[in-house]
Structures are given as structure tokens and as C-alpha cells.
Amino acid sequence: MASSYAEEREANIRRNRQLLVDLGVERLVPTQEPREKQRVKAKRTATQIDQEDEVDQRPQKLVRTEARRRSHRLASHALMEAQQRESPLPVKDSSGVSSGSNKQRTRNPKVYGHISGIEVGKWWASRQECSEDAVHAPWVGGIAPGEKGAYSVAISGGYEDDIDDGYAFTYTGAGGRDLRGTKAAPKNLRTAPHSFDQTFEHNHNRALKRSVETGKPVRVIRGYKLQSKYGPSEGYRYDGLYVVKKCWTERGLGKGGHLVCKFAFVRLEGQSPIPVNPDKEG
């Protein structure tokens, strides 16, 4: 008899948790873990919420009367990509419009290790602010890829069988979803069901696989949607440097059973302890 979704999920969670134990996560957790400082609830605009909920979203098909606006957005997007190859970098949103402060990056996000002047535990109200500080450049995507490995990742609890034990966690890669949408659902979000296998040929997954090979440290930010006691109650927090110890593929949850790329992260020692959120479990 085929296993139910819940049974598969629990089996995956047990396997992932044991993997983290085998990697030595228990010795990294301090005896006394600090509590998260209370913060005023962050205010996010409708645009920020939309951007933070979607991953690699392709533009929706627009009616002919909006063709000029669409061309402008595409041109602006190309300009933004060109600007991101240099430093300092103007920070603009996906429409090419600068943020209210017209702030420029004074740091280069395409480096391995800590960003100068940004301490572990730094908190931001939005992904935009985190990008402005160069800790995790993408406003939307969870992985910032580089030639020798990923520069940074953002974890927000997108997959039910991933484990976050703070000082080590499992992470599911990118791809496997058709984000172009359909007539019934013209704007698929990152929660769209998998319709094909993830592979290490995907640029983001290839970067994390490369991190395993090179041992380059990866910056990690945690978001408020993460259902773990290490997830912040609001906004996004920089939790320091991790190394990617292992990568593999396995059958994902759900009806299709498509392959997903998995990664195991372990935090480097000697960093400030991660605050815990008593209002969250796990």
C-alpha cells in the first residue's frame, strides 16, 4: 500500500534530522540560547509582499495596450542586471524604479564570507533592505549563485520536510516548477506544485553543489515565514556563515514524486549564538 503524504513527510523529516545529528549539530548548540528581542511589526507594502512571495516569477502575458509599459519594464530589468555587475550598485526594484532613498550599495554582495560592517544578528524589515546591505542580493530568489559556490541563501520554510535546527539545516534547491502560469492560474507562485525534476544543471543548484566542493562559506538569512524557533517573528535576520556539507537528490513529496535537489548546511563555529523565538515551535 502506497504511503500517505503525511507518512512520507514524517519519514523525510526523521531522515533529515538524523543526517544533521550525524553532521554534529548537537555539539554546536549552546547550553543557553538567547531569546529574540521584541520588535515592532514590520510594515510591508503590497509590492514587497508580492515580491517576497514569488521566486523567479516570469512576467505575465499583458494585453496589447500595455505593450509599451512591458517593453519599458524589460529594458529596465536589463539595465538593473548590468548595474548589478559593478560596485557600488544602485538598488532598484524589478520595475527599474529606485527605492525612495535612491540608496546605492557601498559594498559588493559577490564576495564569500561576511560583508564588511554587517554583524551577525543584523535585522531588516524587508528583503530590499537586506539587498541594499549586500548580505543577500536577490530581492526574491533564495539562492545567490557564484562561480565558486553560492554567496548567500535565504530560508523561509518553503518545503515541509526541510529541517531547521538553527546550527544546521536542510535546504531544497530551485526549479521543478512551471512559473509561466496557465489559463486557470495565470500567476503561479513559488508554491506551485512540481511538474518536473530539479537537477544540478540549474544554475542555483549547481552553485550550491559547487559550495560542497570548494567549502566556501555561505551567508544565511532567515525570514519571518520560517516555522522554526530560529525563525524571526518579523522581517529578516543575518545568522552568519555556514558551509554546505552534503548534496543529494531524492523523491519530493506530493503526487508527482519528482526529484528534488537537497543540501545540508552546518554553521561555522565562533559566531554569535542565534536567538530563539519562543512563539514558534520546532
Helices and strands in order:
Elements: H1 5-22, H2 25-28, H3 46-53, H4 67-83, E1 123-124, H5 127-132, E2 143-144, E3 152-155, E4 168-172, H6 203-214, E5 218-223, E6 236-251, E7 259-267
Parallel strand pairs: 3-5
Antiparallel strand pairs: 1-6, 2-3, 4-7, 5-6, 6-7
End-to-end CA span: 30 Å
Shape: globular
Structural class: alpha+beta
Helix content estimate: 10-25%
Order of helices and strands: HHHHEHEEEHEEE
Residue-averaged pLDDT, rounded?
A: 78
Radius of gyration: 19 Å
**Main pleated-sheet profile:** 7 strands, mixed
Number of helices: 6
| Number of strand elements | 7
Residue share in β-strands: 15-25%
Spans where pLDDT lies below 50 across 5 or more residues: 49-90, 92-101
What does this structure look like?
The protein has about 280 residues and is an alpha+beta fold. The protein has helices spanning about 5-20, 25-30, 45-55, 65-85, 125-130, 205-215, and strands spanning about 125, 145, 150-155, 170, 220-225, 235-250, 260-265. Strand 6 (about 235-250) and strand 7 (about 260-265) form a beta hairpin. The model is unreliable at about 50-90 and about 90-100 (pLDDT under 50).
Write a brief structural summary.
With 282 residues, the protein is α+β, with helices and mostly antiparallel strands.
